[in-house]
Amino acid sequence: MKKLIASIATTAMLAGGLAVLAAAAPATADVAPAAASATCEVLTVNLTGYDAKPGVGEPQIEVDNPAYVPAVAAVAEVSHTDYEYKTLAGLFPTKWTYRTAHKYGGAAVLYDWRIWTATGATSKHVEVAGVAAKPAVSTPTVWVANPDYVAPAEQPNTVTVKVNGSVVADAAFGAAFADTFAFADRSVRNTWSVDVTAWNGAPTHVEGTSTACVTPAAPTWVDECGPANNGHWVLPAVVGYTYAVTDHSTLNGKVGVVATAQDGYVFNVGARKQWTQTQNNDRCDQAVPTVVFTNQACVAPTYGEGTITFANLAITNPSGVKVLVKRKSDGAAITDLANLTPGHYDVIATVKNEGADAFTTVPEGWTVFAEDGFTFKVSKGFDVVAAAPCFNPVATITAAPKVIDVCGIDNDGIDWDGIALGGTWKIASKVVDAPDHHGETRYRVVFTPTGVLPAELPGKGFVVDGKAVWLMYLDNAPCTDAGLAA
User: Fold this and answer.
1) Confidence of residue 10 (pLDDT cuts 50, 70, 90)
2) Sign of CA dihedral 262, 263, 264, 267
3) CA dist 26 → 51, 200, 309 (Å)
4) Quick one: which of 128, 209, 356, 404 has the most CB atoms within 10 Å?
5) How many CB atoms lie within 10 A of CB 116?
């Protein structure tokens, strides 16, 4: 049991030393801010200096072997020679007493007041019997598993990483842990935390908020027309950075804007952060009035003399422009633009604010009047020409003449009422029992126009010498009782 006791004592001593060490030492490493940091793109976690957890005790212990049989050493035989002696014990009969002596004392010796004579016989006297050597069976002790042994842990520490409240890593580690975690949206600030539990120390926690990488939005430059330096920047509403306007318009006309990132925000590499514009003194561009001129025209009637319409000017005048229409013949200002008599007329447009406005774009056909390089007045002339009278001949003949066919010839007739204008109607001839039409009367109906006939005539009309002609056939059957009844 010596080895067993010594092994248990050693294990207990080691365990006690480890316990003291663990109690005395703080956590082998802490989650310092430097061990976890974030840019706008990634969270980097780099934990170092942690310990693996050592084992407690020895994996095996030495104990007595119950199957052990010790070895037997050889024993040498110890012996000597005994010599037989005899002495007379009786004469009748003769008797002898025998004894042995450990050594030869001669042929006769005196022992116990008697004479002993050597018989010559000897014997071997073994004092210690000899024993052959025997080997040991098995070994005195054996190694067995230590029931109190605790194996070392290579990854006894744990780390949990969260981004915006969601777990992105939950792992066990040994001496170190390193990893990076990309943020899904780099344009916003992402919250993160790292929690570490070391086997030989209290849990530690560190948290933070990443920066956000943004690109400044470009402000809008607004420079209204006019000679005054009134241009200005319109700054958008933004998060994470501010704008500063630097106005040097009184020196060189320049107005600048610089974007500056606020705490927790950085600008993307290469992002534009500064803008500059120069005030201009361009005059406001007044639009030239839109003028639609309609000359005199003769409007043809359905039939007869046409109607002469007056010439007119339709003017769309922009705000900030005054318009004057003058007749060239007498210089009179014309206010009624809907009834212009023949003659020449000038439309004159002038900007109202000559200190700030000008016509910078003048359509073709206008005469420009410039002063000091600026166009303040334009004009455009129109000639009203008397329209030639127009006459509209027969525009249409809407239908062919109709027959009025009743019993008896005297009641027959032709109806052309309302089917044509601009000419005269007549029955040019009337032939009873016309050729190839026995029992019928042929009427020759003629329309003589005062103008030109239409290109096509309705019915079976045809043109002869500029006149429209229809041949109409009517039944000559006399009136009878049956006919009347019918």
Assistant:
1) very low
2) positive
3) 12, 7, 110
4) 356
5) 23
